[in-house]
């Protein structure tokens, strides 16, 4: 796929301002968010880390973690499964 700029969620809220190369579909699932069913699709992405990271108003912070550290954070299992699969399948060309 072409390079894509990730800066808006489907609901119009700004997420990140990071340019990435979008790769293969890793996983998809349905996630319940405040009583609404949301389809989540995760893709392998690669790109250069921007000089600064920022977050939208719907979040309180942004941080970077090594893959082994993620299990200690409050992250839904589906996302953890996708991250594990991206490294296992070598679909992610990251650091």
Tell me about this structure.
This protein is mainly beta and 95 residues long. The protein has one domain. 13% of the residues lie in helices and 33% in strands. The protein has one helix at residues 77-88; strands at 3-6, 18-33, 36-46. The chain has a three-stranded antiparallel sheet with strand order 1-2-3, covered by helices on one side. The chain starts with a strand and ends in a 7-residue tail after the last helix. Mean pLDDT is 75; it is low at 1-14 and 91-95.
In short:
The chain has 95 residues and is mainly beta. Helix content is 13%, strand content 33%. Strand 2 and strand 3 (36-46) form a beta hairpin.
What share of residues are in beta strands?
Answer: 25-35%
| Rg (CA only) | 14 Å
Overall, the morphology is: globular
Describe the sheet with the most strands. 3 strands, antiparallel
Layout of strands and helices, then pairs:
Elements lengths: L2 E4 L11 E16 L2 E11 L30 H12 L7
Antiparallel strand pairs: 1-2, 2-3
Annotation keywords:
3-stranded antiparallel beta sheet, single chain, 95 residues, 1 helix, mainly beta, disordered C terminus
């Amino acid at each position: 796929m072409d390079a894509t700029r990730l800066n808006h969620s489907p609901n119009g809220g700004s997420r990140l301002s990071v340019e990435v190369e979008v790769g293969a579909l890793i996983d998809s699932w349905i996630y319940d968010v405040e009583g609404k069913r949301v389809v989540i699709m995760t893709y392998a992405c690669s790109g250069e880390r921007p000089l600064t990271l920022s977050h939208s108003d719907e979040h309180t912070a942004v941080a970077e973690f090594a893959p082994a550290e993620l299990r200690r954070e409050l992250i839904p299992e589906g996302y953890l499964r996708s991250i594990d699969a991206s490294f296992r399948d070598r679909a992610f060309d990251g650091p």
